[in-house]
Amino acid sequence: MQTNFTLAQLADPQIAEADKILRSCVHCGFCTATCPTYVLLGDERDSPRGRIYLIKEMLERGTTPEVTTQVTTHVDRCLSCLSCMTTCPSGVHYMHLVDHARVVIEETQQRPWRDRLLRDLLAFVLPHNSRLRLAMRLGVLGKPFAGLLAALRLRRLAALVELAPWRVGGRCAVERPQVFPAHGPRKGRVALMAGCVTPVVGPSILDAAVRVLCRHGVEVVVPQGQGCCGGLVHHMGRSEEAHAAACRNIAAWTAITPPIDAILVTASGCGTTVKDYGFMLRLDPAHAAAAARVSALAMDVCEYLARAGLLPERPPNGKVVAYHSACALQHGQRITREPKALLSRLGFDVREVPEGHLCCGSAGTYNILQPDIAKMLRARKVGHIEKIEPDVIAAGNVGCIR
Q: What is the model's pTM?
């Protein structure tokens, strides 16, 4: 794709990176077939190729209200599922381009006050365990009124209270800094990232990860000072908040002594973000080197278990597992074989969900900010899962599970 940036624009390293990504696109259209929003809406502007054109125009012409408003509408509809990157034969790094576009939009676009208020609320609450836990408890009070809120055309607020679980537990053990010793001879030593959402809505995921790792000889360290990966605010274009979260985690993980073998993540959305710290902080001289080291150490928990070969092989148990491949895992981290291999090794009959490359509609805050599209994708995914008639549905991301 031809670009027309001035030399002054290209002096900005962010624009220079965007220019490189744009020029790698040959607008072949392969991405349209695997883009969930294009499959649903049939609008070229809601395809990766269409958004690339819109972003190119915004970056070249500058952020005039006429240009930015149109770009915002269609970039907001992007799930960042990254299916397009798996499909693209030219290797276009759409993730970095759309993330940069979101930062530009956040810095320049004057959104409607309700939109700004909701985004500010999500950024204030979601990355913090205690705030999220309180919000979930308050959300239970609003659940009976979800239908009324939707009827009043307050669809985002309705989606928000619908997501609140009926019961919210107390603090998860993995939220507290500690070391879980290996059972028997130690075969490995890892840090476990608790994150922000998982301890509140899926604490059993973290507890199970610790049990499995320790049972098979891996010492698990939960370090002081780690927190949200920054992905939730990163995908809302709030780069300063995202970078602050990344720097906090980097400081926590690099302070661990003696050294660890890996930094394990149980939520694939967080894992994709942590593995991108090296790129996110590449222009920060104080953190670039450490960020690159952290990204190299980051692994999904199933990736680590598969590489270490820790789990024993068991005979078939007759249970059918529908494997829902989370977008952040299959497209963001290119991990596709390991989860299925682990489940098969444990005796399950693993079956892939039809249209497994298409997103379920969760995508971080997407199911709140774009509830109509999210619900269409969810219904589509549920329909495909039902065809398998599984005993269990397995997924590698807490957002997909919720």
A: 0.93
